[in-house]
Amino acid sequence: MSPVDPDIFRIHPRLQRRRITYFTLVYVIATSGVALLLHAFMKDGLMVLEMAMLPVFAVLFYQLTFAFVTAVLGWMVLVREKSDPLRIGKTLPADEEDSVPLASTAITIPIYNEDATRVFEGLRIMFRSLEKTGHLSHFDFFILSDSDDANRWVEEEVAWLELCKQLNAFGRIFYRKRRQAINRKSGNIGDFCRRWGRRYRYMIVLDADSLMGGAALVRMVRLMERNPIVGIMQTLPKLIHADTLFGRVFQFSTRLYGPIFAAGMDYWQGRDGSFWGHNAIVRLQPFIEHCGLPELPGKEPLGGRILSHDYVEAALMRKAGFQVCLAAEIEESYEEGPPTLIDHLKRDRRWCQGNLQHMFLLSAKGWSGVHRLAFYHGILNYLVSPIWFLFLIMGTFYAITAAQFPEAFRPQPHYLILLGVVVCFLFLPKVAVNLRALLDPEQSARFGGRAKLFVSAVLEIPFFTLLAPVLMVAHSRFVVLTVLGQGVRWATQSRRAVDEVDWREAIITFYKVSLFGLGWGLSAFYLNPGYFVWLSPVVIGLTLSIPFHILSGGARLGALTRQMGLFLTNEELNAPWVIKQLDENLGKAYRRQVPHETLRKHYGLLQVIIDPYTNALHVSLLRLRTRPVPESQEFFEEMRALLLEKGPDALEPKDIVSLMYHPESLLWLNDHVWSSPAAQIAPWWRLAMRQYNLLTPEPITPLYR
Amino acid sequence: METLTNSFSPTTGTKEEWNEAFSRVDDFFRAHRVRQTFLILEILRSAAEKHKNSPGESPTRLAVKEAQEQIDTWVKGIMAGSGESDVRKVPMGLVAFLLCDGPRKFPEYFLGRSNLPSELVDGMRQRSLEAGPDLEVSSMVPRPIDLGLLPEVADDTWEFLQRNPMVRMFLVWTFFLAIVIGGLVYFIN
Questions:
Q1: Whole-angstrom distance between the N-terminal and C-terminal Cα of chain B?
Q2: DSSP assignment of A214-236, as one string?
Q3: CA distance A130 to A583
Q4: C-alpha span between A492 and A494 (Å, rounded)
Q5: Contacting A residues, span 173-192, partner chain B, CB-CB under 8 Å
Q6: A298 touches chain B (CB under 8 A)
Q7: Residue A5 pLDDT > 60, yes or no?
């Protein structure tokens, strides 16, 4: 498939002007800042340390300027009465919307050991919301499971069956379980494309925690139909469902400041935009033809399979002649964020490795300049942490030297000017956004009113001040580990708060960071108390990382700030139907009866063996082998005898999963567990058979009923 | 523990054995979301008959086997006109019974031989478990990316370092010591 417009790569003159403006501003401001520091250093003659600090400062200042200019331009775009004429939404005015026909669309949700309740209840809401639009017939849903946890796997199957039954959605909601999770999420999506991609014109990719309204899904398809040269269209998902202080501050912050950064990026990126891998629509045919990902040279972590596949897919789509754009105006697009600092860091660890892999792609041929820059910035986002760290260490040496030789280090006004500029760059966009919101009653009402918005915006500053140095140290460590060859495991993301934060985990994770911060602070204080004052936000953040994680990661403080009306967002105050209904359903679903504690660990296996319907469902979904493989027969015979006599704790988790892939064994176990006299089976099974009946007659599903 | 009623008096096996068999079949039917005591007794009577011929066999095993056989026969009978393959008839039939709300709407017809309501029979036969639509296979192959010269050099170096951990360690320590020595020299001067 080729793009319709042969001049696809010709940049719109208006966009050209924007890019010139943008990069000129970044260049002029960044070089002025570096020149100012150079001038200050040269006043007393340039020392070796100063020469080393200058390029480090240049990188940091460039990054800061880049973000600042993006935010300022984004702010200007948003305050202008006239909306941006280059936005994709402009191509389809509301009054023309019904005239654009819809096309077959698959809504795909790749999952890996996720909370089935959240996944399937979210799906139910989207299904219902689409039904309300009257366009459900154009959409099919696919749950693409890579789960390797037996409990999660069975939960998914049972939830799928029950949801299809409740919604009468067989033939509309599909469930596919991959035996081998090759290439993780991108492989999962690729597998869907290979099996069913040709049946659909579009694919809307969602994450397990995504939620979208029916009207938004329909509009995405119509916008794609109206713009046949667009290959990928990304929406701007808003964070929802945060219940810890950590999650709520992030939710508030991204809701308040996120739109200016998105508008700023969109302003100069135009149709060379980014793809974040979810809450986006993809034109399937060119995606299948052009976006198959190769392996990078070398082995993981820096080589091998591409982890952060979305950026690369966007670049490949653009290379193939299709546009990639942001549709920030699509309102009902939501996702959930990590609830605690540790969960945030776990996600960053994966993203860090994924972005550093893009180093290989920087010099590859055929990318558009903007996508090449996106790769560069993705890498820099993580490299900037060790660079900042290095700069602070250099600054400490500089301060020590200055304390020893005060005559050689006369205070220069340039430093104060630069400090003022940095503070301005960090806070001016925030001040501008808050001023705009405070002056507009409608906007401030979306955050709980003027007073609450103001207090939340002020409190957010010390929160991120304490957080930033911890992220700096953590990211620096991630970069070093990745470069030294230590890769990451594919892990399930935690998305929900727990009542009590694990102190042990917090101490194990952060004690070195705390000790380092304490040591650094004390030495700075001893050697140059004046410098310690400047350094204090960094060392206090590091020293307090353990209590920071514990206090911010618990649900209690999150609930308290909610009660006080702090860090509120519009989605909390005026939740649209999709969120309200999802919350209501989840509330009911999570109140379901919990299995007996002894049985909980292997509840999936229990259901597959004990429950005749779950057994029948599971076996039906597996490929029924007509001829057993003789080599594996002995292994399965041994495993099931062990399982029957000793119970599931006698087996390794991988052996349980193997058994669950073997229909003959499952039928045999169902037969023998039920028919064996009590003395011949493990006590675990006897308890299971008695307890399971306490939970019936309703089938045990993770769903709201 | 529920005990057997007077209406069931097996001639072989102990009371405890038959109590256990009763309890197990009761659990077994309840796992099917069906609670029909007369069915349990019917199963136990058939099992007791079989036990006369094989007294060495456990009543629990015989009773549950009897229940399983009756369920299989019942499901196969209904699913005979469904078009499902033989090997899939029983599992698919059971799922179809659940999907028709059989345990809630038609518990009295469970294992029934005659006068089955057409809503149940047709409902079970027409239910199909469609986990995915028909395949329409596409070829999605990795697109080669011309990475240029730089990654090639980097890759060679990386592979060399991967093969030689001592060299890698030497470089890391050299880098670290260079920083430390650089700092010391700086302060001494």
A1: 90
A2: HHHHHHHHHHHHH-TTEEEEEE-
A3: 18
A4: 6
A5: 174-176, 190
A6: yes
A7: no
